[in-house]
Amino acid sequence: MRAVLTWRDKAEHCINDIAFKPDGTQLILAAGSRLLVYDTSDGTLLQPLKGHKDTVHNDAIQCVSYNPITHQLASCSSSDFGLWSPEQKSVSKHKSSSKIICCSWTNDGQYLALGMFNGIISIRNKNGEEKVKIERPGGSLSPIWSICWNPSREERNDILAVADWGQKVSFYQLSGKQIGKDRALNFDPCCISYFTKGEYILLGGSDKQVSLFTKDGVRLGTVGEQNSWVWTCQAKPDSNYVVVGCQDGTISFYQLIFSTVHGLYKDRYAYRDSMTDVIVQHLITEQKVRIKCKELVKKIAIYRNRLAIQLPEKILIYELYSEDSSDMHYRVKEKIIKKFECNLLVVCANHIILCQEKRLQCLSFSGVKEREWQMESLIRYIKVIGGPPGREGLLVGLKNGQILKIFVDNLFAIVLLKQATAVRCLDMSASRKKLAVVDENDTCLVYDIDTKELLFQEPNANSVAWNTQCEDMLCFSGGGYLNIKASTFPVHRQKLQGFVVGYNGSKIFCLHVFSISAVEVPQ
């Protein structure tokens, strides 16, 4: 996940709160005594509004929350909270035992959660009567600074996320039962909010940044670093855009980009799901198995009966229980408890290969570095092309156009050929006599490995794969088409969105967005 700043503006006063228009086209923010309305597409300030002059509460209003169903408005102060209703002229007022800092209605509008300065969460029905009381450890030393109900319609229970100044995040059911353990923070949280479908949480505060968490409280990364405390953060409805409001009046609007983390070997495809899980899919039987890692999955590699998963502080090596080609039961074989920074990850029978810019490192499953190769240029592509266990061959493509073959047990790399353009994708034919390359100009080039002769080239390619069962057949994708080339015959073309990732017999495997599918083609 990476965050791209779309636009930024600066108000005169602290940004206390932000709300999106339901369709996401505009956002309104509270800065000092003014309300500012922005166009979310480009950050244009549409209009400044002044706050109303008449007082409603005896004390300063701390927070408001609109009931999504009954159209009641809850407004909370230091000593009480009021329930406003369109049908009633008078405001229903209820006393509070402590200063109310935050509030949030459940999805069905039946219950209102109040977060208070004394570390208590009071859950009230829509008439204002207390039904559940949750006392956080630390009491008044852990003021409840921000709360939010998960908006997901798929959750069986209402789930309340709680951020307190005991520097903890916790989750509760409507009954008051805690879900899981507290998640420790190293800062005072000022705002917590969910994405529209409840899959992610945004959290910001005294650490001067907004962090992205899973719905279970696993930290995934930083959305944006700021120069002052973050007082409010919200996700734009049904999108991957996030707005952040700070103590110094800065408003920042970010786009979150979630990359595909995956690996493929023949008919097994492994991919990241929900940022912390790995799903292995058998492309022939359509069976799937989910591996819950409970941490951010950074890289995935799969080869034969091995599966490697890189987490922030370790690499897990899994193996299949049996040699059965349809077996989908994986078990942990080894754990390498070490933090690695790498661009690409490859797994072999007894080793993992880490790619770091121009350098390749070969490590045993116990984490011992056995070999290292230094390349002339940045490594753009790497693939295992088979071989005996412990002696596998790797195909490596570089930014300077060089293509090499490396054996895991040999310190010396073999240069196969060098072309003028950077390598984007590579594959070798079944007999290892031909090489297909997609370059940075979207051209597919096919070479004879022995003579280095360019056999043919085709335009509009983004990925390429040789047929694992037929020496002279390959396919490449690009420009909304799937192209199949058999020997010297003209290219057969059919419409297809996505990337070709494998070609086995009469099946071509294609990746589109986050899913992979098998396309039947004539042989």
Automatic annotation (TrEMBL):
GO biological process assignments: intraciliary retrograde transport; non-motile cilium assembly; protein localization to cilium
Q: Where is the signal peptide?
A: none
Transmembrane segments annotated in the record for this chain: none
InterPro entries, from UniProt?
Beta-prop_IFT122_1st, Beta-prop_IFT122_2nd, Ift122/121, Quino_amine_DH_bsu, WD40/YVTN_repeat-like_dom_sf, WD40_repeat_dom_sf, WD40_rpt
The name under which this protein is listed is: Intraflagellar transport protein 122 homolog
Domain IFT122 second beta-propeller: from-to ranges: 262-515
Show the Pfam families listed in the entry: Beta-prop_IFT122_1st, Beta-prop_IFT122_2nd
Q: What is its main location?
A: cytoplasm
Organism this protein belongs to: Pongo abelii
Residue ranges constituting the IFT122 first beta-propeller domain according to the UniProt record: 2-56, 57-152, 154-257
Please state where this protein is localized: Cytoplasm, Cytoskeleton, Cilium basal body
Q: What are the entry keywords?
A: Cell projection, Cilium, Cilium biogenesis/degradation, Repeat, WD repeat
User: Which PANTHER family has this protein been placed in?
Assistant: INTRAFLAGELLAR TRANSPORT PROTEIN 122 HOMOLOG, WD REPEAT DOMAIN-RELATED
GO CC terms, sorted: intraciliary transport particle A; non-motile cilium
- Chain coiled-coil ranges: none
